[in-house]
């Protein structure tokens, strides 16, 4: 007898979950535990660093190993008399918000592994030693760490497929559709969390380059474009190198600092975008020139 399509997908969900839990076990109980044990001896890296690398992997592991996998196994054992997984996935979905933390931290974690592998040979050796074990299947720590990042999109795909293959009168239809909706929201939530983190991180770097002037440090600002520009001086017919930062609400006209201690630029002028006009100039002597006029003042600039 041919197994129904939806059961095949539910079994695939279970099998991939088993593989995923053993991957989480490797990350939490082997890599994290052993690196932490070494860190406590004070010979490899600070304990803080190990904690920062693995973020909240322990919570993720506990959740999947102790709760989601056993529930899924129970469902598949009872499939013949109770063919449903939608309800279990609805219980899973809210907890997937935990991934936001892990995802946000991911790039930083990979960077920390690289930096500390260079700084601390014993740290690098321990990782290499674990990577040689059979359980690692010739893959690096970084590669294994990608698994949680890819897991939520995988749930989404499998569940979409499952809902598509369900017979119209299936007892699981309502639950499965609701579960898919919930997973979809979580996937969106974690992508938004990552995008927002990146935006704030990039904004902070720009503020540091500008010397953290109080009146411009605002977390809601958005950097649109930045780059070098020539300022034209009509009086002595010459140009000088300046730098522009365009935000959603202001244009910062800056001078690169010769001695770069701390900030890279000094803000000379701030023109509000509100009421600002840009006009191209047809100047034969200075091509690619334009005029920026705002409430604060007017500048004649030349692009490359």
Automatic annotation (TrEMBL):
<feature type="domain" description="DH">
    <location>
        <begin position="5"/>
        <end position="193"/>
    </location>
</feature>
<dbReference type="InterPro" id="IPR035899">
    <property type="entry name" value="DBL_dom_sf"/>
</dbReference>
<dbReference type="InterPro" id="IPR001849">
    <property type="entry name" value="PH_domain"/>
</dbReference>
<dbReference type="GO" id="GO:0046847">
    <property type="term" value="P:filopodium assembly"/>
</dbReference>
<dbReference type="GO" id="GO:0008270">
    <property type="term" value="F:zinc ion binding"/>
</dbReference>
<keyword id="KW-0862">Zinc</keyword>
<dbReference type="Pfam" id="PF00621">
    <property type="entry name" value="RhoGEF"/>
</dbReference>
<dbReference type="InterPro" id="IPR000219">
    <property type="entry name" value="DH_dom"/>
</dbReference>
<dbReference type="GO" id="GO:0007010">
    <property type="term" value="P:cytoskeleton organization"/>
</dbReference>
<dbReference type="InterPro" id="IPR051092">
    <property type="entry name" value="FYVE_RhoGEF_PH"/>
</dbReference>
<dbReference type="InterPro" id="IPR055251">
    <property type="entry name" value="SOS1_NGEF_PH"/>
</dbReference>
<keyword id="KW-0677">Repeat</keyword>
<dbReference type="GO" id="GO:0005737">
    <property type="term" value="C:cytoplasm"/>
</dbReference>
<feature type="domain" description="PH">
    <location>
        <begin position="222"/>
        <end position="304"/>
    </location>
</feature>
<protein>
    <submittedName>
        <fullName>FGD2 protein</fullName>
    </submittedName>
</protein>
<keyword id="KW-0206">Cytoskeleton</keyword>
<dbReference type="GO" id="GO:0005856">
    <property type="term" value="C:cytoskeleton"/>
</dbReference>
<dbReference type="Pfam" id="PF22697">
    <property type="entry name" value="SOS1_NGEF_PH"/>
</dbReference>
<dbReference type="InterPro" id="IPR011993">
    <property type="entry name" value="PH-like_dom_sf"/>
</dbReference>
<keyword id="KW-0597">Phosphoprotein</keyword>
<keyword id="KW-0479">Metal-binding</keyword>
<keyword id="KW-0863">Zinc-finger</keyword>
<dbReference type="GO" id="GO:0005085">
    <property type="term" value="F:guanyl-nucleotide exchange factor activity"/>
</dbReference>
<keyword id="KW-0963">Cytoplasm</keyword>
